[in-house]
Amino acid sequence: MGQSCIAESKMEALILGVAQDGGVPHLGCECHNCSDAVHTGLHKCAVSMSLINSANATPEAWLIDCGPDIKQQWRLLKQHCPKAGVQGVFLTHLHMGHYIGLYQFGKEAMQSRGLKIFCTPRTAEYLNLNQPWKYCIAQGYFQIMIVAPGVQVQLGHGLSVTPVEVPHRQEFSDTVAYSITGCSGKKLFWCPDIDSWEEWDLDVREVVESHDMSFLDATFYSPEELKRRDMGDIPHPLIPHTMHKLQGLGSKVRLIHMNHTNPVWDPRSIQSQELEKQGFQTGVQGSVFTL
Fold first, then answer.
1. Strands of 153-156's sheet, edge to edge?
2. Metallo-beta-lactamase domain location, by residue (predicted)?
């Protein structure tokens, strides 16, 4: 344990959501997964995570992405750590399910003061030039903190976050994943969106091997999931391909960002059984990992 990781400190990663941007149930959908979510009332939140540092008397928390389910996710965070104060938000990119929840921190809702928004220069440019984000920045609700791929951001007491550039559709911004290191030296990798493992400058297998746990894009299991849309317009690595590339490393992986059409939402499905057979698991909303 590092010198700064005092015995009383407690650093955790709390998983706030593992669904694709639209969550489950999806708007206007009556598929098996969405109907089941409506029937059971067990809604799945869009992908997000909170880092919690309890080294101080008042615990500090940071969000990684802030999507449309932030109110429910805020309650989940407060249930887990009632005194946690959110210091900032790390954005991966500007697709709807990863940043639209920031509006809850604006004038019409919480009206935060100086909430730190950690993002790349291109993302910062978009937020600075477009409303309502431009207004929130001008009023001091948000404070933009520029991050750069490969440059570590120190959050105190040995907790750090390092952006890692990944290839993904760039309609509004570039995209990063995050490598997170806790005071114990444990490392997590958070990559909810990527076009393909082959287009990446890094080797996904080496990345997974170098982290204690990796949360990886698992949007689709099969191209058959979207019958009325061109999968080429929304590329993601398919789960079977990811499992093949990471054969033998399943215990170090949690699959996240599942679309509402993904059969692995159903634990009884053949696809879920195949995941288990291969030694892989999906991420679970509310699960906690010690850092």
1. 153-156, 159-165, 176-181, 187-191, 213-217, 253-256, 281-282
2. 63-251
